[in-house]
Amino acid sequence: MHRAAPEQAGDPLDREVRALERELVASVGPSDVAYLVRLHHLNRALKWIGRGLAAFLPGPLMLVGAVVLAINKQLSVGPLGHDIYHGAWEGVEGAEAFAVQHWQWDAPIDKATWQAMHNRAHHAHTGTAHRDVDNHFLFVRINPHVETDPVLTPVQGLIVPACLLGFTHVAHMQYLGVFDQLALRLSRNTVRKVPVGTRQALREWWRSIRGYAAEHYLLGPACFGPYAPKVFAAELIAGRMRDLALFYFAYATHAGPDSAWTPETHRSRGRGGWLRDRIAVSYNTRLPRALSLLYDAVDLHIEHHVFPRLPSHKLAEAAPRLRAICERHGVPYRVESISSRLWTTFAEFWRLRDRRIRGRQ
Fold this sequence. Notes:
Blueprint: H1 12-26, H2 30-56, H3 62-85, H4 111-122, E1 136-137, E2 140-141, H5 156-163, H6 167-175, H7 180-185, H8 198-222, H9 228-252, H10 270-280, E3 284-285, H11 289-294, H12 301-306, H13 315-328, E4 335-336, H14 338-351
Parallel strand pairs: 3-4
Antiparallel strand pairs: 1-2
Helix pairs in contact: 1-13, 2-3, 2-9, 3-9, 8-9
């Protein structure tokens, strides 16, 4: 967490949020660990249940197996991997097996790269152009302070839909610097501070995903013999379902003309200002409880930015109290429907194709 500047140390918003955070963290106990263990065992079972359903159900019914596999993949990167890599279970008695150093998620994303880009770049600098790596996807803008390109920016409304079904892989390639050399040619900021050659970055990307690719697209399907093609197809479909969900995580929780995006030079004024900046660029949505648990409480993204090390299933407990704190201190707390968020996200991508737009309008 950012240390507050001396003049901001008495910020009442900061004091109330810190008190709530201490209370919530202290409440994580044996029942939460039991929930985590059950979730882990369920997720391991879902992988093989999904593959079996895909293999043996006739015709289009194999899609049932693909849906089960999609749930498996979402749990792997969501309430398991995402929470664990945020350190949500560090120091919790009984959850030692879920410590960061012991866990390797079942996802085509390099652990160390994700932690650097998500925890230390996105969460520390949410909404700040280029310091937050999630402010743009490839050469598409979501933060109006990100520079434009005369060729790509006008068609960014077409680039995003074209990449959606491979979002996890393409975003991971971006994190690893695969597109940095192209960015240099276009006079754009690179993801890596010291860019490497495209071929080297591609080799790093392949090394990071080849184990996942072998297990999900070769060895796993091969276990079902003559039904292997059906399992392979189900794995591909499930991966695309996961990619659509992760796109929502990355962009629909932040996009919109009302988001208080900031330029690269912006620095928050103390921890109270840092909290206000995070909340002002985030949106909550409305989801049924079961879907909220599956999707890692993405509907409570404001709470996640304020309490990133809190297990996602505890965020619902935090939400009404954080909202009340925000209302007391005049901090915007936005809640919308998922349909509205998705529409606004793509509308914002389309709006920002206009190179004349700079900053908040």
